[in-house]
Specification:
With 301 residues, the protein is α/β, with parallel strands linked by helices. It has twelve helices and nine strands. Helix 6 packs parallel to helix 7. The longest helix has 23 residues. The structure holds phosphoric acid mono(formamide)ester and norvaline (NVA). Norvaline binds next to helix 6.
Amino acid sequence: MKHLLKLNDFTREEILSVLNLADQLKFERKNGVANECLKGKKLGMIFQKSSTRTRVSFEVGMYELGGYALFLSNRDLQIGRGEPVEDTARVLSRYLDGIMIRTFEQKEVEDLAKYGTIPVINGLTDYCHPCQVLADLMTIRERKGSFKGLKLCFIGDGNNMANSLMVGAVKTGMNFSIACPEGYEPDKELMNLCKENIGFTLCRSAEEAARNADVVYTDVWASMGQEEEREKRMKIFKSYQVNEKVMKAANKGAMVLHCLPAHRGEEITADVFEAHADEIFDEAENRLHAQKAVMCKLMRD
Ligand code: CP
Ligand code: NVA
């Protein structure tokens, strides 16, 4: 385990080991036990897009582990003025012990890892969001006890979240269904990976996808970088909303997860969101524990 560029970089065993460590770190934190396993380590956090959870969980996580995190915004870095990634990677590798990056192109993350000599963690690209899915898996296991026999359903855009959730389902053996409009499907190769390894259905009806689901997941209809398509997307995704009707089709006691930020009245109704707020905010909290576990695994000597 050297980098986390996408969830598929980790084996099933590595993912379970991250989740176990995240559970342990959560338990220790709740009981006031300090764990400074990254004492003196420095993490650079490059943000080319906005963030609340990712930034705060990595920064607080690093502090709690005894290390230091630097917030490096695109507006201030020379990378924002065109300095090549291969140079940025080689420079930062001389100062830091790890880099977390949130950006648009997956290739930029891959290039940082290729040209640098320190671990690189993907904090979201247009292609995937592996850190979020580790927290999601942690939340599912915490509430359901195990992944065995579960069906995870995603309603909405076949975006970065859908891509990483599909890999998460494959790695943990959950079945997966997705409801999305035509032309907004997730990555083809990842759909094939699902078809080859788990029960997988692609539907055009949210209720059909939610049938017998144990976990119902949704995300915004217009992701960061798609602001100009927002109005068009509002019309296209109208019937891909997690609402009461969809929840009735799911299994009794089904969880609802949302990576946040949420748009009430768009991808999820306010009623469903509030009825499942405990799960959703546990999920947000688990970003901290999962991120700490990833940093420990990648950056500890
Ligand atoms: N879910 C998530 O990544 O949140 P932020 O965009 O606030 O980091
Ligand atoms: N799909 C969303 C996820 C935000 C955490 C986006 O990329 O904006």
